[in-house]
Amino acid sequence: MALETELKFCKPDFGRVHENLSRLGADFQFRALERNLVLDDVDSSLRHRGMLLRLRQVDHRFVLTFKRPPTGQAGKSSDAPCGATVAKVLEEIETSVTDFQAMQCILEALGYRPAFTYEKVREKWLLDNAVICLDRLPFGRFVEIEAEEPEILRLAADLGLDAGCATSENYHELNRCHSQAAGLPPEDSFVFSSEERARMAASPEI
Q1: Tell me: the pLDDT tens digits for 164-184?
Q2: Which CATH superfamily is domain 2-202 in?
Q3: Backbone angles phi and psi of 31, in degrees to 5
Q4: Which residues form the CYTH domain (predicted)?
Q5: How confident is the model over 139-156, as pLDDT tens digits?
Q6: Domain boundaries, the chain
Q7: Which of 131, 159, 177, 196 could be stapled to 82 by a disulfide with Cβ–Cβ 3.0 to 4.6 Å?
Q8: Which are the contacts of 127, defined by CB distance < 8 A and separation ≥ 6?
């Protein structure tokens, strides 16, 4: 399995980040709306062990992803406090699939069922060996940097990101924290409204 090391940065100034990406010579990859389906068993045992099983749709492409803590390390509890600042390291396997619904049926036949869905608009850039993603979600904007751990904060500074806003939480946990802070009822799924999708279709800006 490949190792994935990443940090997210909350409340970024996308305009400033774009300027710095251009200044640093980063390579733009794509901008797209992502649909994500997370699956788990009836006991939510994957989540409790810090694992993730996900089907993702980006345009007409479909990807199956499995993530877990590195061998020998305990899974991260879903009840961990918001705002952790240590980079998250996970083992990851990804593969393209040709039929989203067929793969979902296979996983459900194996005992995994939809746990929640989420959407985001992702803009992906490459800079040397780092992957920088500007993400717009229904509850906020974030920048995610995937790189070797010593490089993440250095690159974040180059992009004008605040290290004090760094978090290793996943988007499900961040949505939970957002709902909690806003006094909203907890919702596992977070998707754009039809009106938001229409506005995004009319404007290419993230």
Answers
A1: 999 999 999 999 999 999 999
A2: Hypothetical Protein Pfu-838710-001 (2.40.320.10)
A3: -135, 130
A4: 2-177
A5: 999 999 999 988 999 999
A6: 2-202
A7: 177
A8: 21, 24, 25, 26, 27, 155
The structure tokens listed for 2 are: 């490949």
Six token digits for residue 152: 């993440």
